[in-house]
Design goal:
Layout: H1 7-18, H2 22-44, H3 47-62, H4 74-93, H5 100-106, H6 112-117, H7 123-134, H8 138-149, H9 154-161, H10 165-206
Helix pairs in contact: 1-2, 2-3, 2-4, 2-8, 3-4, 7-10, 8-10, 9-10
Length: 207
C-alpha cells in the first residue's frame, strides 16, 4: 500500500528532510520503497531495471523537495517521477535489441482484485501474475497495478497518468478482463504441459 504514512506525519517528514534531516529522509524511503519497487517490477518485469529506477526516483525526489506541492501526497509525486524515469529509459533503449523491460510497454481464473491483493501467494502464483500482467498494454497494466496492488483511488491514478477519470475506469475494466483471460490461458497451458510431462514419464517407466 502506498499510503504507509498519515498525511500529517508525511508532511512533517518532508519538512524535516527538506531541512537536511537524514533520519526523516530515511523514514520516507522506508515508507515507500517497497511499494514503489513492487510497482516498477510489475511494470518492467525486470527487478534490475526496477531497482535502478527506484533508486534514481528517490534521489530525484529527495533532492527536489522544495518543488513538492503539499496539496498532493508524496507517494503520488514519487510514483510520477519513477514513471517518467522509466519512460525515459525505454526511450533510450529503443535502438537496442535487448530492451525486454520495455517491450510490453511499447505495445498499444481468479479476478484481478483478489490476485493483486494476495500477500501470501506462492512463487509460482506470483510468476503467473507477473507473466499475465506483462501481457497487458502499458496503460492498463499501470492502472491495474496502482488500483489493486497499491490501493490508489481512481482520481489519483487519473492525476498520475494525466487521464480523465472515466478513461481510467474504462482501462481498469478492460485490463481486469484481459488479465483474467491471460491467467486462465497461462494456467491451462501449464496444466497441459504438466500432463504431457507426466505421460512421457509414465511411458518411459513402462518402456
Amino acid at each position: 500500500m502506498c499510503a504507509a504514512l498519515s498525511r500529517g506525519l508525511e508532511q512533517k517528514l518532508i519538512r524535516e528532510a527538506a531541512a537536511g534531516d537524514r533520519d526523516a529522509a530515511g523514514a520516507l524511503v522506508k515508507a515507500y520503497q517497497h511499494g514503489l519497487f513492487a510497482y516498477m517490477v510489475r511494470m518492467t518485469g525486470r527487478p534490475d531495471v526496477a531497482e535502478d529506477v527506484v533508486q534514481e526516483a528517490f534521489v530525484r525526489a529527495l533532492t527536489n523537495l522544495d518543488r513538492f506541492d503539499t496539496r498532493f501526497r508524496f507517494s503520488t509525486w514519487l510514483f510520477t517521477i519513477a514513471r517518467r524515469l522509466y519512460l525515459n529509459y525505454c526511450e533510450r533503449r529503443k535502438p537496442v535489441s535487448d530492451s525486454s523491460a520495455c517491450q510490453q510497454s511499447a505495445q498499444p481464473a481468479p479476478g484481478p482484485a483478489s490476485i493483486a491483493e494476495q500477500g501470501d501467494t506462492t512463487a509460482s502464483q506470483r510468476d503467473e501474475i507477473n507473466s499475465a500482467l506483462q501481457s497487458l498494454p502499458s496503460v492498463q497494466r499501470q492502472i491495474v497495478v496502482l488500483f489493486h496492488q497499491q490501493d490508489w483511488a481512481i482520481w489519483q491514478i487519473a492525476e498520475h497518468l494525466d487521464l480523465p477519470e472515466g478513461t481510467v475506469k474504462s482501462h481498469l475494466h478492460r485490463g481486469r478482463l484481459k488479465l483474467r483471460l491471460a491467467l486462465t490461458t497461462l494456467r491451462e497451458e501449464r496444466a497441459a504441459e504438466a500432463e504431457r510431462r507426466r505421460a512421457a514419464m509414465k511411458q518411459e517407466a513402462w518402456s
